[in-house]
Amino acid sequence: MRVPVPSKPSNAALPNAGLCYEPTSVLDLCRSPSPSPCPATVPLFELEDHAALHTMDWDSIMKDLGLHDDSVFKTIHNNDFTPLDHALEFSDVYSNLAYDSENATLDQLVVTHDFNHNDFTDFIEDLIRAADCFDTRQLQVAHVILEHLNQRLRSPGGKPLQRAAFYFKEALLSLLSGSNRTPPGLSSPVHCIRAFKAFSGISPIPMFSIFTTNQIVLDHAASSFMHVIDFDIGLGIHYASLIKEIADKAPPAAEMPVLRITAVLPEEFSVESSLVSDNLNQFALELGIRVQIEFVPLRTFEAISFKAVKLVGCETSAVLLSPVIFRHLGNAAAAFLADLRRLSPGVVVFVDGEGSEEAATASAASFRCGVLSSLEYYTMMLESLDASTTAGEEGSG
């Protein structure tokens, strides 16, 4: 997470406002060779975040949506592709692809994650060679490699590296087939809720992101009128602890605090947006906080930028960003950042829970480097989840 903080939290135009960056990534902590000792006590705010997250009535949320909680995910294979005009023998593919020194990184990846080189290097080599074909525009060759790999990686099972490789193989195949939409069976609200519940229970990333983001927003709250412009509201879970903290800090005789949330989101998330609005309003009402939630369609925001957001002069504004909005904006990202600077919010928080910064740096060199960097990142994440699950099972046993 990178947090640009202006010298003064003000909504007035600051043409020469200096920005400083504070690296606070949970991934940096995980990768640190000299981790800091654990504190003797856990901050109360962090405990409240944890309680708010894990006491959410997930069953009630899904019932409100009228959804059936099917605990068995169906694996969807994307194996129907248009035959190539000129079929290539797989044995001929490697004759035009040199194994150069860049594969030293591949060897390091396999060794780092304690895999048998002979068992795992072959299909990882295939994956990286296919990515290399995207750089050289040899898409037919990439198709042949991935079709061959598709026979060997039929399901997301096995060790973390193998599971990560399966999903990258599927992603590359979807690029070739021109289908970049997530299968509906894996993106329904019930699946999103179940996935977030499970992920937040075994990974520190959601808790770290929520705690850090809320603390920064509260630190820059200069008045009882706060406006958060959120470009990745998701299920709105992170606002539960923020609302509770605002209520706890409000002086007894003071005017009721007001939290205004403007969420920019795609039109297809209308079901989730209704759920977020109803739950947060009910939660805030119980704590004596006024919450106003407005949803701005992404298409509208793309057309008129921050003119689509209602701004009030007496409010302290905060903007929450994530890699999601930059994927949507594409080439318009530079104009978006220019508009954001002119808006001059009190604080801008960028929550990077996907390792996008490192992947973007690697992708700038080549598509192949970006794939390899991302493969390593998600392999590490899957290993972390496996370790957390194993530790939990041992503790309960």
UniProtKB/TrEMBL annotation:
It comes from the Eukaryota. It is found in: Nucleus. GO terms for cellular component: nucleus. It holds the Pfam family GRAS. Keywords: Nucleus, Transcription, Transcription regulation. Its main location: nucleus. Residues 275-307 are annotated as: Leucine repeat II (LRII). InterPro entries: TF_GRAS. Belongs to the GRAS family. PANTHER family: OSJNBA0084A10.13 PROTEIN-RELATED. This is Scarecrow-like protein 15. It comes from Flemingia macrophylla.
